[in-house]
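ARCHIVE RECORD
Type: protein–small molecule complex
Small molecule: flavin-adenine dinucleotide
Source of inputs: curated submission
Record status: active
Notes field left blank by submitter.
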Amino acid sequence: MNVLIVCAHQDARSFNGALLALAERELAAAGHAVEVSDLYAMNFEPRCTAADFADAGSGSLFKYDELQERAHANGGFAPDVAAEIDKLVRADLLILQFPLYWFAMPAILKGWVDRVFVNGLVYGGGKWYDRGGLKGRRAMLTITTGCYPPMCAPDGINGGMDLLLWPIQNGILRFAGMAVLPPFIAYAVARSGQAAREADLARYAERLRTLERTEPIFFHPRDDFGADWRLKPGIAPRTVGQRR
Ligand code: FAD
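STRUCTURE (tokenized, with ligand):
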């Protein structure tokens, strides 16, 4: 399969750098075609501006999502955006790799999503969730943290990790129609020690070797929701995001 890894770390000597190099090696050895968007190395522009379009109009109110829709219809994206969209469309599996920043992804990666998950292709016109434009593709998060695992237990001080990742896993990847594999998380990598980090790398290699047998995370299908957009009576919430 074609794998696109989008990585948001400044330094190849970091633990994120080690995870990225490992993924490139393992996936290639398994016969997959791997593309990498190393966002800091690319000096990727995270801001959504008029420069993203061949023609952003002039004088009228700036509406980024409408400009995306028009550029998608007429091929009017700036070359850096167009190149990333091409990579995304080629990918059977998208891996977003990043150090957790403020319970979220670093701004440079959020900017990649904002500029590349474009209206018209990924969402819009009835394309969302089960019917999202990236339906049929899979996605996975590879994350490092500063915090220790118990802090992200369901009753931990940070709240459960599945809760922290809900906006990304549901609000971006699932919204776009993708099947989302369980995240790979290496906790407290700066403090865990060399042996623990080596164990993390071995665990990641194993995850990469078993990707095709890994079951996606459960999300309620659209049919579980009524005309009021809420879970139909009688359907028990089964995600961290829906509750009664
Ligand atoms: P590094 O510090 O680069 O690496 C850790 C260690 O691994 C280093 O000693 C390195 O030498 C070593 N290493 C490198 N290669 C290898 C190898 N091949 N084998 C073994 N060891 C190796 N954390 C949270 O938990 N929650 C937050 O909300 C959060 N918010 C943050 C916000 C900001 C703005 C910042 C800057 C940090 C935040 N953090 C948070 C912490 C952040 O998530 C961690 O610092 C980050 O995940 C560490 O990953 P790294 O790749 O930079 O590790």
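CURATOR ANNOTATION: The chain has a mean pLDDT of 97.
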